[in-house]
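Structure tokens please, single chain.
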Amino acid sequence: MVVNGIAKPSILKTYESERRAVAQELIAFDQEYSRLWSSRPKKDAEDTNGLSMAAFERAFIQQQLFASGFGVHYPPNPLIAYDSSSGSTNGDIKTNLDAVKGASSLSEADYPSSSSHQHLASKTILGQRFPSFKVLNHSDARCWHLANWLISDGHFHILLFAGDVSQRGQMDRVRKFASEMSKRANTIPLQQQQQQQQQRRRLFAHHHHPNYSRSSNMQSTTQDNNNNSGGGIARLLTIHSAPRHQVELHDFPSLLLPYDEQLGYDYDRVFVDGESYYEGHGRAYEG
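Here you go.
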């Protein structure tokens, strides 16, 4: 993004300020975790030198969080807006991060001018990995883990939790959102839009190949992105909570249901938080 002029070069300085603190935390945890494995268990409640199973269980859960990526929590920085409800400012955040080697080279102007609203999604923590839940593809009711569609191919992902769009007022709000986003999307150079369409056509070709597999599809998409680094900046996915049969897919704005003259509609953009035929209810909205 920096090479293509999409992002400021100052974001490159965030690598050490983010990763160094995580690496230090992980090293300290590994040392403690190794000590726990070599400790003998408690003989009874009065044994003060032995290891309690409760302490070991807590450490084991923490290790799983690190292994899955959920144990990593990045602080506010030029890529992560601060929580407006915390009362912090960009100046406060920079002061706190100056203690981390590499962060002091960032100026207050490098931090985002906008803020986030953590209270609107209290279980999706700013700076942590996005949790995945099972959702249904609106077009065919197939059940997917949402993370399957957050492909690491260089794009940002914008997830629109559209709510109960069977209610007219809510669908009107979704259309207003799409209208505002379309104005921003129209500022993307035509060349980038064309490259994004070419990438989707290659993805379509793999999807309909007899030897197609999900892993090869992801790998191809990543390779295509590396070969065409000027592709689109973000991919927009919609997750609504309305009963699937009460909402017509083509009632969604075109921004949420893209159309290609060669491939037709992209049916892998709109999903439902609802009951599947065989795998229960993912309850993504509760997460």
